[in-house]
Structure formats: structure tokens, C-alpha cells
Design brief:
Length: 113
């Protein structure tokens, strides 16, 4: 099983980034997926989740209205569109699969002027 994140980087406050997670090694379309993040000195926290079909999503209160999770089951990818980014969104973002609890390696997002 592999979960490979991409799309992180440095962005100014108010800017946007789109993270992607490419999954392989399991039947992607059968499992819910999530994005988590971990800021320095803080616990890892759930950012957003999406059901296997993509019909149901959930978000942390801190990102509601700014972030959108989506998936493409034909391409085995899950994405996180992040808009109106704030400095407090700075963290390593991880892709997580409910298939046996696999994690990606993480991608750094830094929001700073």
C-alpha cells in the first residue's frame, strides 16, 4: 500500500493550495479517506474526511468553508483544496486511508508572509 501526497509549499496568508494523495495497493473506491495535519508541538488532528463514494464529507470547524475534500475513484486520488489560508494552517498534512489505517509520508504546508 502506498499513499503519496503532493502539492504542499509556501503560500502567503489568503492564498490557496491544492493537495493531492495518490493511492495504490488496495481497492481505493471501497474505503473512506481523510486528511490530517500536525503542527509543531501539537497533536495530529483531523482536517477533512470523505466517504468511499464521495457523497459524504466532514470537516474540522477550523477549516469549514475554506477547505474542500474530493476524490476521483477512477484515478485513485483524494484531494484537498485549501483556500483563504491562514498562518495557523501551517502544518504537515497527511493522507490517511481507512484501509488498515495506512498513512502517507506527509507534505509541508507553510502559510507566511
Amino acid at each position: 500500500v502506498q499513499l503519496v501526497e503532493s502539492g504542499g509549499g509556501l503560500v502567503q496568508p489568503g492564498g490557496s493550495l491544492r493537495l493531492s494523495c495518490a493511492a495504490s495497493g488496495f481497492t481505493f473506491s471501497s474505503y473512506a479517506m481523510s486528511w490530517y495535519r500536525q503542527a509543531p508541538g501539537k497533536d495530529r488532528e483531523l482536517v477533512a474526511g470523505i466517504s468511499s463514494t464521495g457523497l459524504n464529507t466532514n470537516y474540522a470547524d477550523s477549516v469549514k468553508g475554506r477547505f474542500t475534500i474530493s476524490r476521483d475513484n477512477a484515478k485513485n486520488t483524494v484531494n484537498l483544496q485549501m483556500n483563504r489560508l491562514k498562518p495557523e494552517d501551517t502544518a504537515v498534512y497527511y493522507c490517511y486511508s481507512l484501509y488498515r489505517g495506512y498513512w502517507g509520508q506527509g507534505t509541508q504546508v507553510t502559510v507566511s508572509s
